[in-house]
Amino acid sequence: MSKLTKKNKLGIIMPHLRGVGMNKYLDNFKKYEALSKKEYEDFTDLINAIDKVKFTSTEEKKSNAIIVMGFSGNGKTTYVRNFLKNNPNYTEISMDKVVRDYNEKYKRNLSGYEMVEYFGIEIEKLISQNKNIIIDGNFLNLLTRMALTDTLHEYNYNVNLLDITDNVKVTLQRRIEDVTTVRLRRRYPCGYTTNQLIQTANEVIKEIEDFYAKEKKSSFIDLQKEYKVLDYGVDKYLKRDASTEELISIKTKQK
């Protein structure tokens, strides 16, 4: 069996840390980065390695956090917006928004590790106020998700994971259906024949399909499903009822 390595299996790309301050989230991120650099015989071997370093607490939990996990354009932000309307006792934090705000503040694009650092700063601000938190991010990768889960557990949070990855099929179909010659003609109003627009539409559809295939492959979401570790390290694993939008708690294994 081929060994799992950072390059060909784990799919975590972490830029070298230079001159960045520390917080618990960044500290945990570095902890799991160290695991990503090792080789593993299979996914079980990786889980055993995580078991040795993950944070475990027996203290009473004080507040609640919901991590919304899904692919890009998967409906995470829309779900969070609707959730907050019915749950005003929760506060949202979005990885994308944190990055945009700091990019604007410093007039440049943050490096990969700076994104982690500043997200850690912002989430600890909410934690210091004992806020219930709903977190809008990708978090498809098991190790990056564990870094966040450990951080929240260290602050005595109940950690709930809402998995909406199954919705990617609907998202992909919607995005493909959105690629029409009418829309493309608005984008390329001059000089494109109908046949050229159809060819362009096919190219755009291929790009969309390739994007989601790459995101799926790099996160090893299928391996996580196969080894039943999507709920790893969390207190509750949640799914969304498509018809009622209610959250359904799926029984998790004791970890």
Short structural description:
The protein has 255 residues and is an alpha/beta fold. 51% of the residues lie in helices and 13% in strands.
Folded structure, characterized:
- The chain is an alpha/beta fold.
- The protein has a single domain, classed as 3-Layer(aba) Sandwich (Rossmann fold), CATH 3.40.50.300.
- It is built from eleven helices and six strands.
- It has a six-stranded mixed β-sheet, sandwiched between helices.
- A hairpin with a 6-residue loop joins strand 5 and strand 6.
What's the SSE blueprint?
Blueprint: H1 6-10, H2 24-36, H3 43-53, E1 63-69, H4 76-86, E2 90-94, H5 95-106, H6 112-128, E3 132-136, H7 142-154, E4 157-163, H8 168-177, H9 181-187, H10 194-219, H11 221-226, E5 236-240, E6 247-250
Helix pairs in contact: 2-6, 2-7, 5-6, 8-10
